[in-house]
C-alpha cells in the first residue's frame, strides 16, 4: 500500500495527465500516467484513477491490463472497478487476451460484486473463444472435445458457478457437457470421470441455480439420478470417486434427493481436500436449505395480528412461490450506506431537493411482498438507520431472505408471513411502504393498494411497481401460446423452453431466449406461467393515485438517458411528474418500462 506522500505525488501526476488529455495531448497524458503507475502499486483507488484516463489515452487493452492488477479487497472500490471494466471489455478486439479472462474470474468471486451484473461482459468475452462457440453450435459435437474444452475454460467455470447462464449458446454447451459426462459414466462407471471434478461441481452449481431447467436428452438421462445412486452405493469407491460422482448426480437433481446423502456427507467430512467447488456445492444445496428450514420456524412471531391467507388467489400465488421461490440470488453489488433522502435522490434525480427535506431520517419501512429478499436485504444494509418489516405470502421465500440478511449481519430487518389483504386491521403505521411487483398478482390490485395506503403515515412515501401493458406484449403472446399446449409443472416448463430453443429463430417465441427470466424455472414460472397477472397503463395508474388521494412524485427508470429524453421533450416540467407526458413518451418508446412501472408517491400531511 502506498504511503501518504507517494499517493499525493501520484494524484498530482494523474491530475496533470487529465488536463493534457482534455486538450487533446494524449502523448503527454500517457507519459505522466506511466510515471504514476509504479506509485500506485497495491492501491486499488489509485489504479482505478489511472485506468480511467489511460483508456482514453492508450486504449482499453492497456487500461484493462493495469486495472487487473488492483487488489479486490475493498467492496466500495470494487463496484467502480466493475463499472469501468464493463465500459472497456466491449471495445477490446477479438484476439485472444488472457488479461480480461483472468480478471473476470477474480471479479466473479470478489466481495461486493454481483455475479449477475458481470454476466453480460463475461459472455462477451467467452463468445470470443471460437472453440467454445463452435462446439456449442454443433449438435453432434464429440463428447471428448466438449469435456476437454469446457474443463479448460476457467471463465466459463467461474461464471456458471456463480450466475445463471442466461444465454442460448452457453445452454447448448452446458447441456452437451453434462450429457457427455453422463455418457462417460454409462460407459465405465466412476473411473472415467477422473479429472472432471472441477467441471462437474461447476455444472452442478449451475443446474441448482437454474433449478434444473435444462432439457434432458433421452430416457437414460431422465433416469440419471437413479442410475448414479446405484453406483454411489458401492462401498469400494474412494472418497474422491464418490464425491466426483456425487457432483454428476447433482447435475440432475439436488444432492438432497440422493439416496446416498448420508454416505456423501461422511465422505466429505473424512476427505481432507475435497474436489474444488464441492464445499460450495454442498453449502448451497444442503447446508443453506437446512438453515432456511430452521429459520422458517421463527418467521411470523413478531407480527400482530397474525395475517391468515384466506383469499383464493392469494393462496394460489403463495403455493406457486412455495415451490418456486423467486428469485434465487447469490450476492448483491455493494453500495455505500446513505440516508433515506439520498436513497430517494438516487432514484428520483429530477425531484427538487426541497421535496426531499421532509423525508424521515430514521424511517419505519414496510416491504409488502419481499420475496427472497433481493431488494429489501440490500436496502436494509444501504440505509442502516431504517427499521424494516418485510412481509410475503411465501414462507419458503422469506426463509431464503432471512438467511441472506443473517449472512450480512443485519439487525434492522424483521420478516413475517402475511397477505396484504389481511393487514387491513393492523394498527401499525409506516413512514415508507414499498410494494414492487406484487399488487398486479392479486385478485383485486386496488384493494391491496388501498390497504397499503391506509398503513402509510401522513407525509409518508410509497413505492409501487406494476406491469406495463405496453411493454409486456411479448408476455401476452407467450401466455397465449402456452394455453392448451403446456401444463405448469417443472417438466412442462422444461418442455416449453426446449421447444423454443430447438425451434431456433423460426419459432414464434424465439425472442424469449433474450430474456433473463427464460433461464431458470422460478423466473420462467413468474414471467410466463404465473397463476395471476394484471397489466396497467399510465392513465389507469393516474386514476388510482387520484382515487387514493396520493401525490405522484416520479418514476424510477433503468437508464438516465430516459430522464434526459423526457427533459428534452418537456422542459416545462423539470420535476418530471406529469403523467400525461409520460404516457405520451411511453407510446413513443415502450422500452421505458420494460420491467414494470416503478414509481414513488407521497401521502399528504
What does this structure look like?
- This protein is an alpha/beta fold.
- The chain contains 29 helices and seven strands.
- The protein has helices at residues 4-22, 26-36, 44-58, 60-67, 75-88, 98-108, 115-126, 130-137, 143-151, 154-162, 168-188, 197-209, 219-222, 224-232, 239-249, 261-270, 278-296, 312-323, 340-347, 353-356, 376-382, 395-407, 445-455, 473-482, 490-503, 521-528, 538-548, 560-569, 579-588; strands spanning 364-368, 387-392, 413-417, 430-436, 456-466, 551-555, 597-602.
- α23 (445-455) links the parallel β4 (430-436) and β5.
- α3 (44-58) runs parallel beside α5 (75-88) and α9 packs across α11.
- It is globular.
- The model has no long low-confidence stretch (mean pLDDT 93).
State the helix count: 29
| CA gyration radius, whole angstroms | 26 Å
User: Which oligomerization state do the chains in this entry correspond to?
Assistant: single chain
Query: First CA to last CA: what distance?
Result: 53 Å
Q: How much helical structure, as a percent, in the residues?
A: 40-55%
Beta-strand share of residues: 5-15%
Kindly report the average pLDDT value: 93
Major β-sheet annotation: 7 strands, mixed
Number of strands: 7
Spatial order of the strands in the main sheet?
3-2-1-4-5-7-6
**Overall morphology:** globular
Q: Concise description?
A:
The protein has 605 residues and is an alpha/beta fold. The chain contains 29 helices and 7 strands. The chain has a 7-stranded mixed beta sheet with strand order 3-2-1-4-5-7-6, with helices on both faces.
Amino acid at each position: 500500500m502506498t504511503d501518504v506522500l507517494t499517493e499525493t505525488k501520484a494524484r498530482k501526476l494523474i491530475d496533470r495527465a487529465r488536463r493534457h488529455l482534455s486538450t487533446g495531448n494524449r502523448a503527454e497524458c500517457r507519459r505522466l500516467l506511466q510515471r504514476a503507475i509504479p506509485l500506485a502499486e497495491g492501491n486499488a483507488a489509485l489504479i482505478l484513477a489511472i485506468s480511467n484516463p489511460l483508456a482514453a489515452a492508450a486504449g482499453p487493452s492497456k487500461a484493462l491490463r493495469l486495472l487487473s492488477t488492483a487488489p479486490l479487497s475493498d467492496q466500495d472500490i470494487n463496484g467502480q472497478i466493475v463499472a469501468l471494466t464493463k465500459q472497456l471489455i466491449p471495445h477490446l478486439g477479438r484476439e485472444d487476451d488472457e488479461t480480461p479472462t483472468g480478471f473476470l474470474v477474480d471479479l466473479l468471486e470478489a466481495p461486493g460484486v454481483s455475479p449477475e451484473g458481470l454476466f453480460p461482459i463475461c459472455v462477451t468475452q467467452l463468445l470470443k473463444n471460437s472453440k467454445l462457440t463452435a462446439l456449442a453450435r454443433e449438435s453432434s459435437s464429440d463428447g471428448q472435445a466438449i469435456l476437454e474444452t469446457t474443463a479448460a475454460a476457467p471463465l466459463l467455470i467461474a461464471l456458471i458457478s456463480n450466475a445463471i447462464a442466461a444465454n442460448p449458446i452457453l445452454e447448448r454447451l452446458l447441456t452437451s457437457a453434462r450429457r457427455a459426462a453422463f455418457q462417460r459414466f454409462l460407459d465405465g462407471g466412476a473411473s472415467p470421470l477422473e479429472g472432471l471434478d472441477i467441471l462437474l461441481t461447476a455444472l452442478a452449481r449451475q443446474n441448482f441455480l437454474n433449478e434444473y431447467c435444462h432439457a434432458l436428452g433421452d430416457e437414460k438421462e431422465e433416469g440419471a439420478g437413479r442410475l448414479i445412486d446405484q453406483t454411489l452405493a458401492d462401498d469400494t469407491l474412494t472418497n474422491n470417486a464418490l464425491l466426483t460422482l456425487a457432483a454428476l448426480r447433482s447435475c440432475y437433481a439436488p444432492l438432497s434427493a440422493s439416496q446416498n446423502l448420508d454416505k456423501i456427507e461422511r465422505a466429505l467430512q473424512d476427505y481432507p481436500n475435497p474436489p474444488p467447488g464441492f464445499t460450495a456445492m454442498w453449502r448451497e444445496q444442503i447446508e443453506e436449505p437446512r438453515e432456511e428450514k430452521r429459520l422458517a420456524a421463527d418467521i411470523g412471531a413478531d407480527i400482530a395480528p397474525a395475517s391468515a391467507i384466506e383469499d383464493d388467489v392469494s393462496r394460489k400465488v403463495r403455493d406457486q412461490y412455495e415451490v418456486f421461490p423467486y428469485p434465487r440470488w447469490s450476492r448483491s453489488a455493494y453500495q455505500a450506506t446513505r440516508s433515506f433522502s439520498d436513497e430517494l435522490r438516487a432514484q428520483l434525480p429530477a425531484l427538487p431537493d426541497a421535496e426531499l427535506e421532509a423525508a424521515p431520517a430514521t424511517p419505519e419501512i414496510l416491504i409488502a411482498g419481499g420475496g427472497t429478499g433481493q431488494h429489501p436485504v440490500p436496502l436494509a444494509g444501504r440505509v442502516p438507520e431504517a427499521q424494516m418489516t418485510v412481509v410475503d405470502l411465501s414462507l419458503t421465500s422469506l426463509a431464503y431472505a432471512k438467511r441472506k440478511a443473517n449472512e450480512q449481519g443485519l439487525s434492522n430487518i424483521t420478516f413475517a408471513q402475511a397477505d396484504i389483504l389481511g393487514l387491513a386491521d393492523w394498527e401499525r403505521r409506516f413512514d415508507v411502504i414499498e410494494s414492487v411487483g406484487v399488487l398486479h398478482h392479486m385478485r383485486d390490485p386496488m384493494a391491496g393498494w388501498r390497504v397499503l395506503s391506509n398503513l402509510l403515515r401522513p407525509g409518508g412515501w410509497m413505492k409501487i411497481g406494476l406491469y406495463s401493458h405496453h411493454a409486456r406484449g411479448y408476455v401476452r403472446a407467450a401466455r397465449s401460446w402456452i394455453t392448451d399446449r403446456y401444463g405448469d409443472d417443472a417438466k412442462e416448463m422444461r418442455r416449453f423452453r426446449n421447444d423454443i430453443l430447438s425451434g431456433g429463430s423460426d419459432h414464434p417465441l424465439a425472442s424469449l431466449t433474450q430474456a433473463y427470466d427464460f433461464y431458470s424455472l422460478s423466473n420462467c414460472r413468474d414471467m410466463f406461467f404465473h397463476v395471476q397477472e394484471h397489466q396497467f397503463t399510465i392513465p389507469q395508474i393516474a386514476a388510482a393515485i387520484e382515487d387514493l388521494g396520493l401525490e405522484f412524485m416520479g418514476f424510477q427508470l433503468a437508464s438516465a438517458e430516459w430522464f434526459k429524453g423526457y427533459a428534452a421533450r418537456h422542459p416545462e416540467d423539470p420535476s418530471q411528474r406529469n403523467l400525461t407526458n409520460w404516457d405520451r413518451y411511453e407510446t413513443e418508446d415502450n422500452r421505458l418500462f420494460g420491467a414494470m412501472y416503478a414509481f414513488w408517491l407521497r401521502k399528504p400531511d
